Amino acid sequence: MNSAYATDGQYIHPSILNADFMRIGEELDRISSADSVHVDVMDNHFVPNLTFGAAMVEQIVERSPIPVDAHLMIEDADRQAPVFAEAGASSVTFHLEAAAAPIRLARELRRKNTAVGVALRPATPVEPLLDVIGEFDMLLIMTVEPGFGGQSFLETMLPKIRRARAAISESNLQVSIQVDGGVSRETIERCAEAGANVFVAGSAIYRAHDAAAEISALRDLAAAHGAHHNGH
Ligand code: DX5
Ligand code: ZN
After folding, report:
1. Which of 16, 37, 40 to mutate to test the pocket of ligand 1 (most atoms within 8 A of CB)?
2. Residue 76, annotated ligand binder?
């Protein structure tokens, strides 16, 4: 299991979806104090938007001072996700809705030495996944409909985070819970309280004048509101 996503910590993952793509190297440097860079891969089929492919991810891995967390919003995850592990992503998250054999895929990705995440759209229930959650290093609970940055946080996802955290704790598993979409200074505390420990923030960080200050503000808020879930 990849220790980068053990539940004994909290992690801030800026999403480069709202970065200036013409200056991607400098945009990566702006967030070098974060834990990982979250790269949103979209194929214009699973979501109505198109972003990066594996060649771009490989270049980001080479250039980035911090690990790459690839969030695949693409169809046919079974065939495509391994390509992103080979591109050097430290973690690869695929959507449950896009995988025919999620457990087989998770095992294949782990053999490629990447941490594995499984993502759920807001309307996908978490319960069917809970019996097999130990197959994954991370559960991504989307807090907006995937596809675009800058949308508002779906408060209705908080009970889902809470139920998932309770089930993971009951089984004594080390599975991180990532939240993605509308995470900001206004919403991160509630996510941490509910049991999330990996926080993706796109517009909140890239629209800030001082990205490093925003990262540390988010980190402090998460730490102040979520530590009790991790036994610290
Ligand atoms: C949405 C993406 C998110 C997005 C987050 O489909 O998965 O990672 O970039 O952006 P904000 O933080 O602006 O909602
Ligand atoms: Zn994402």
Report:
1. 40
2. no
Active-site residue, 35 included: no
List helix spans (H) across 73-231: 77-86, 102-111, 127-130, 158-170, 188-194, 203-206, 211-226
CA of 211 to the centre of ligand 1 (A): 16
Residue 104 clears pLDDT 80, i.e. is over it? yes
Outline where DSSP puts E strands in 51-164.
68-73, 91-95, 115-120, 138-142
**Token duo for residue 134:** 């130990």
Q: Which CATH architecture has domain 2-226?
A: Alpha-Beta Barrel (3.20)
Distance 15 CA to ligand 2 centre (A): 7
Annotated binding-site residue? 202? yes
pLDDT at residue 7 greater than cutoff 80: no
Q: Which residues pair with 142 in a beta bridge?
A: 180
40 has catalytic annotation: yes
Q: What is the pLDDT of residue 2?
A: 45
Length of the chain: 232
Residue 18 to residue 198: CA distance in whole angstroms: 19
Confidence of residue 228 (pLDDT cuts 50, 70, 90): low
